[in-house]
From TrEMBL:
Its EC number is 3.1.1.106. Gene3D superfamilies: Leucine Aminopeptidase, subunit E, domain 1. The lineage of its organism: Bacteria, Bacillati, Actinomycetota, Actinomycetes, Micrococcales. GO terms for molecular function: O-acetyl-ADP-ribose deacetylase activity. The keyword Hydrolase applies. Keywords: Hydrolase. This is O-acetyl-ADP-ribose deacetylase. Residues 1-175 form the Macro domain. It comes from Promicromonospora aerolata. Coiled coil: none annotated. SUPFAM superfamilies: Macro domain-like (SSF52949).
Length: 175
């Protein structure tokens, strides 16, 4: 088992699955969501539309996750999760933790070895990166401890800058 942090572009990360900080409509947006949709190509939007027309007619709930193929990304899968939006009063850390746990549940169902996460709900959704890092690391550690035989075993947090790296490094060292 390993958890690490790196500065980089999530759309260029070679991992079995990348996690998309999606909006509930699953049809693309800004930030990480927009970048993943742009890099994956138009087939990702088609796959998300199929989800909206079948299993997720009302969209994806906050804290839930679902997978699609990654198409033109270097990953095999995109795991879409909807983080809580602090600007809309969604301030429950349990919802944020659920994004990470449910994404790992989906990854385990796909039998992938490696998953790359963004700082879900930081940035446009207003959550302080310190809180996101603490909750992400704590949740992923608990998930790994509770699923000792399951994959994934390689979890990476991909951030945009040195501050994000330092914050996630501190959360990883905290124990």
């Amino acid at each position: 088992m390993s958890m690490s942090v790196q500065i980089g572009d999530l759309t260029r990360i070679e991992a079995d699955a990348v996690v998309n900080a999606a909006n509930s409509m699953l049809l693309g947006g800004g930030g990480v969501d927009g970048a993943i949709h742009a890099a994956a190509g138009p087939r990702l939007l088609e796959a998300c539309r199929r989800l909206r027309n079948t299993t997720h007619r009302d969209g994806l709930d906050v804290g839930d996750a679902v997978a699609t193929p990654a198409f033109d990304l270097p990953a095999s899968w995109v795991i879409h999760t909807v983080g809580p939006n602090l600007h809309r009063g969604q301030d429950d850390p349990v919802q944020l933790a659920s994004c990470f746990a449910r994404s790992l549940d989906v990854a385990a169902g796909l039998d992938v070895r490696s998953v790359a996460f963004p700082a879900v709900s930081a940035g446009a959704y207003g959550w302080p990166v310190d809180d996101v890092a603490r909750i992400a690391v704590m949740t992923c550690r608990a998930w790994l401890a509770g699923h000792p035989e399951a994959r994934p075993r390689d979890i990476r947090f991909v951030v945009l800058d040195e501050r994000g790296r330092d914050v996630f490094d501190a959360a990883l060292r905290a124990g």
